[in-house]
Amino acid sequence: MSTQRLERIEVRAFKAFKHLNFELHGRHLLAFGGNGAGKSSLYWTLYTFLQSAAKDTLNVAKYFDDAGTQNLLNVHATPAERADAAVVVSIKDEAHTSAAVYSLSKELHDTKASPDVLKASLASDFITYRVLSSFYQFRNSQAIDLWPVFEQEILPFAQGTSTKDVAALWNQLKSLDPFVQSKSKGETNWYRKQRYDRFDRDVSRFNTALDEVLASISAQAQLFYNEHFAEPGTTVVLKVGATAKASKYDRYAHKFTVPSIGFEIELNGNVVRKPQSFLNEAKLTQLALSVRFGATLAHLHDSPMKLLVLDDLLISLDMNNRMKVVDIILSETFAEHQKIILTHDLGFFNEFRRRIGPNHTEWSFQHFNTVQGSGIMLKEAKTEVQKAEDYLNGHNLDEAAICLRRAADDSAKRLREWLREEKLPPGKFLTLTENLREAKNRLLQGIPKRFYREVLEGTPIALVEKLVPGDVADLDGQATLTAADRGKIKSKRGALRKLLTNTHWTAMENVRLIDKVLETTERVLNPGAHGGESPLYEGEVTIALELVKRLESIAP
Question: Using an 8 Å Cβ cutoff, are 412 and 435 in contact?
Fold first, then answer.
């Protein structure tokens, strides 16, 4: 159960930031920024912070050493600012009133061996588009080998059955050359052979554990794909497995070779050994996501804090497929994770924000903004309606009306497209009035006109509910009706009541709302009508604000 959340992130003279001081207050983050705006720097700052718990102090201090070749200091910072470089993260536990503060700098390494941060580094997920594309960026002549991305992105938190900490075993094999060790100790051939044999046994242990890990990932990836991406009439079987084992130690060449991991699919019973040559990028991304998230689900770690940090993850998917992934991110699957979602696509940012819906108070919506002299900052990304409210509170009625017009344009377009079940062709544009009228006509098509005019129009919902009885008590005296007849009448009455009070009533209310919004287009929502001899009044802008809010609520 995760009980800890990021409370505050301060970054001084590190990566792209001169001084970022951002209060997250335990919320999720959805942030927009163009290329070079600082998204990747925030991603790698958080990654570096969590990974620092498992590093020795020298390997953390090097990132802040101005004289070192491996520093990650901001190139635009002054010498004084670089000397004060640090990453400071506050983590709040719901059981405590104060937050724990961890600092990383040339002198400070507060996260070193911290149990909570160590657990969080294993339980958190950091995924970029680069990681996904590495699953299939191979030429047609090449067989896919996932070992490089597996070693970097998945192995660190993978758990085997026969060997729990697979990553530790692998790092041991990589770092300990038995020949170099034996020679440095001046061992005889007999002792050297014993050392080689121990190494080979460890290689065998690793290969066994790797097979276990890949089997569990394949199983979870298949389940994930079937649940979220499977299409009717098409059967896809994902296969991830070792195509070459890590070799035993070559006692003459004094080396061993790393394993290879293959990735292929079975499509309707036919084996596709090189998916990159057969499938489009969107489908390949779905497969890569299934494997990557399958790896997460196959090796869940208990931790008081879990982060899910995604940087421009879905740029190769169309909006429909992107929203499928958004639904996954917002589902129970990742309910325990604090989510950090970074994107350069403003359209996707807005769609994601709308998808969050009523849970928006649990999220912080930001955009990366460069401030002269201060560098990159995070600034609250307000909706057009929120901007309108600010302008209205500041008595700037014309600017409030302009923001409301933008919000109404967007909502009317989305409502019309939803009702028509199709989007406008590229390059075609409809006015606010055209979109609203088309939406109104579509709604009215679902309500018989005579029924609307003679029964529903002008009738309060309280009276509509009384038009059809909710039970069959009035039929008690009719002996000719069988129990089956009474049951059928009750069922049909229920359906009719639902149609009257829910389906048709909702459609009618939406038609009334559209009519009211259309009325405001002559004044408040018509920028050309502002000023001159007919200024706007606060009351009419306030009414327009509430109408546009309601319009937003019915536009999917």
Answer: yes
Which amino acid does the sequence have at 299?
H
Burial class (CB in 10 A: 0-12, 13-18, 19+), 118: middle
Decide: residue 390, CB within 10 A, 0-12 exposed, 13-18 middle, 19+ buried: middle
Domain boundaries, the chain: 1-124+305-381, 131-302, 384-554
Sheet of strand 307-311: strand arrangement: 125-128, 307-311, 338-343, 28-32, 363-371, 375-380
Q: Are 344 and 312 in contact (CB under 8 A)?
A: yes
Quote the CA–CA distance of 72 and 64 in Å, as a whole number. 6
Measured distance CA(423)–CA(385) in Å, rounded: 24
CA distance 438 to 18: 50
Dihedral class, residue 512 (left if φ above 0, else alpha if ψ from -120 to 50, else beta): alpha
Q: Which CATH number fits domain 1-124+305-381: 3.40.50, 2.60.40, 1.10.3210, 1.10.150?
A: 3.40.50
CATH of 131-302, one of 1.10.10, 1.20.1050, 2.40.10, 1.10.287: 1.20.1050
pLDDT by 10s per residue, the chain, length 556: 678 999 999 999 999 999 999 999 999 999 999 888 899 999 999 999 999 999 999 999 999 999 999 999 999 999 999 999 999 999 999 877 788 999 999 999 999 999 999 999 989 999 988 888 888 888 888 888 999 999 999 998 888 889 888 999 999 999 888 888 888 888 888 988 999 899 999 999 999 999 999 999 999 999 999 999 999 999 999 999 999 999 998 999 989 999 999 999 999 999 988 888 888 888 888 999 999 999 988 887 889 999 999 998 877 777 778 888 899 999 998 999 999 999 999 889 988 998 897 668 899 999 999 888 788 999 999 999 999 999 999 999 989 999 999 998 999 898 898 888 888 777 788 889 888 898 888 888 877 666 666 666 676 767 766 666 666 677 666 777 777 777 777 777 666 666 665 666 677 788 888 889 898 888 888 865 555 556 888 999 999 999 999 998 888 7
Distances (CA, A) of 262 to 174, 240, 276, 391: 21, 6, 12, 57
